[in-house]
Amino acid sequence: MLWTPLLFGWLAPRRALFENRSLTAFPSLPTNLPGVLRYPGKFANWLSDTFPFRGGLIQLHTQLSGSLLRTSPNADVVIGKEGWLFYAGEYALAGWSGLHPFDQQELYAWRDALVARQKALAAQGIRYLVYIAPDKQRIYPEYLPDGYRPGTPTRLEQLQAVLPTDFPLLDGGPDLLAAKSMRRLYLRTDSHWNEMGAFVGYETVITAMQKWFGQIHPISMGIFREAMTTVPSGDLSVMINRLEQIQEPSWFNDKSIRFKRPKVIDPKVPVDIVNDRADLETALIFHDSFGVGLMPFIAHHFRHAVFIHHKDVDMARVQAMRPQVVIHEIIERRLNRPLEKELAEPVK
Amino acid sequence: MLFTSPAFLFYFLPLMLCGHWLLPAHWRNAWVLAASLLFYIVGEAVYVWVLLASIALNYFFGMALQRHPGRGVLAVGVGLNLFMLATFKYADFLVANINVPLSALGLTSLPLPHMHLPIGISFFVFQGISYLVDVYRRDVSATRSPVDFAMYKALYPQLIAGPIVRYRDVVGQIKHRHGDWEQMGRGARRFIIGLGKKMIIANTLARPADTIFALPAGQWTAPVAWLGIVCYALQIYFDFSGYSDMAIGLGRMLGFTFLENFNYPYIAQSVGEFWRRWHISLSTWFRDYLYIPLGGGRVSPGRVYFNLSLVFLLCGLWHGASWAFLIWGGFHGLLMVIERLGWGRVLQRLPRVLRHVYLILAILVSWVFFRADTLSAALDYLGAMAGLGGLSPNLVGFYLNPMVKLALAAGIIGATPIVPLVNSALDRPLWQAGFGVGILRLGALSAIFAMCIMLSAAQTYNPFIYFRF
Predict the structure, then answer these.
(1) Measured between beta carbons, which residues in chain A are less than 8 angstroms from residue B215?
(2) Which of residues 78-117 of A touch B (CB under 8 A)?
(3) Segments in B202-270 forming alpha helices (H)
(4) What ipTM score was computed for the predicted complex, to two decimals?
(5) What is the C-alpha to C-alpha distance for residues B402 and A315, in angstroms, rounded to an integer?
(6) pTM for the whole thing?
(7) Is the pLDDT of residue A8 over 60?
(8) If contacts are CB pairs under 8 Å, which of residues 51-70 in chain A contact chain B?
């Protein structure tokens, strides 16, 4: 067995894995003594990414773990019922089980950071709204394996308890839980919500903004019709190397409303959507990957909406654009991360 | 380089073994030395100079002791070895503790040196000291061959995680080694068992142990705390004994016979017996090079207790540069003293099962100090084990997926000598199925090895996931 890769590896077909990264390149030859000493380590790293039969072994491991042991080969992914996958990394499941609460210091630090942003924006006459997109397990706990239980307090519950009562923190959970009986709202093998989940999130945001901008109303969900389509499996499938084509509900609108959608989504490039026939003027939206689904719907209400894939409110951009409202979308599990990694912008 | 990495399993090991046995006998030590240095350089790169310095230091002091066996020479040689260890391993700890009174007095703290800790330094420094002392005591003659000595010191199977191989135990094998297929087979079998212990049991149990120990103190309920410490106790045993098995197996494939390092420590019936079964190469090192020179058991009882306490405190410190490890070592020393003070005699009168329960409880408590991040966390954890923990809902099921349950069961069985007993029972003429038993064993080993290869490959899978931003 040990000799197989060396002797027969050149015969092995290279099984491609979707890793979405460049595999370690063959190291260039060293030119000095420290380089000579570091070279074997670099060479070993290259071997780890390229040894023969790697793809087949990884896929075999995935299949055996999942089918024989009903255990995910990746500790950050939990295999649930009926093919559902859940993200367990970053304390996502532990937090939902109430096993990762804030300590006092960090809780008040989060509170103070969010309130500081609200005050800084209010000083410029700009509205601020924080939308928490729920983790998948909060909306679909019935698909988790037995043994997983929700717990309290979650970090979101703790934060809600200490923020001022009039602070505009929106928890997307209640509206999504109310809507799930009508439509599927999250992707089965992905950590994200689907288009309908994003739409429900959008409804929550626009409804909350009515207290500031009475003229806006959410679009009716009735313009969408559902159809099952075959799509590639999602990010959680990639993490366990279980790539397959699966059936997922997709939604098609009846064209009564034409949404403006970006042609390309690049996290490094802001998405700028201009809409001449909108109710409101300008919005600046800071978001993570969940915010991508919100783009066409929120932009529909603004003549100029800029979506910036950034964890925190960028005050320099706010100064430059002077929007009417700043929307700050945060996926719930980011509350588990250290504050300084999430809200790092200096705010006066 | 790790034994569990694809680079080691599929490239280094087969090429190394092939070269070793195809080369003429007088070239083999040089080949093993070159391969061992390469093995170390993969992980440590420029810090290979530390290993080379240790080799040179002990080679020349060994030669000096051979010619002039004086205590002064020995003291300098041992002192330089300890200085090397103190510099790389304990400098930060020493400075941090010096800064405590300095800060209290309002004085400027010393900057932490942030020394890099070369992997295996605790092992190869102790190995060097054992060589010098054995030469001094005339238990063994110093070798004149720098290649032979360097190979002994750098021998890759035992270089980074032991066992601590004494020169006198392998001197004959350094000069003459033979190899046959049966020996290779035995070595391979031992290596595969060690690989399985590490990758299938230890790595699986590491996850719930790490998750539970990382919980805030208020989340430790009694069932969760007990689950966490049992997982950790099995993790550390199978990790360490697995590495020792791999080292012994790899050594055997090269024609070396290393002494056993673990002998089912969790079936011991006292702490004294535990240390005759756990990390045997370390406990015997401390016995032969510290405890006995301090007088061993031949001095007054009070002095014996002092010696025991000192030895175990230093044993704790050897494991890591922190107060937690000192406390862990001190706890073991305290139990050793208590057993000598009369508790041992009481134990002997108890039913055997109670002796086992006592030992398991004592060891689990000691592992809490070893694993917890701080002393305060350790005390909170112990409180949770005693039922004084949080009121969170019992979420033991959160940590128990099918693989963890399997690893727990395999770990509890594997921590006892059940498997070797069954294995030797199968060889009895009663079964008259020798060939069938052989096939069964081969099948089991092949399945373990195949699973480990898959796990080794799976560790290299590292997709970039957009959602993490």
Answers:
(1) 94, 99-100
(2) 78, 87, 93-94, 97-101, 103
(3) 203-213, 222-253
(4) 0.78
(5) 48
(6) 0.84
(7) no
(8) 51, 53-54, 57-58, 60-62, 64-65, 69-70
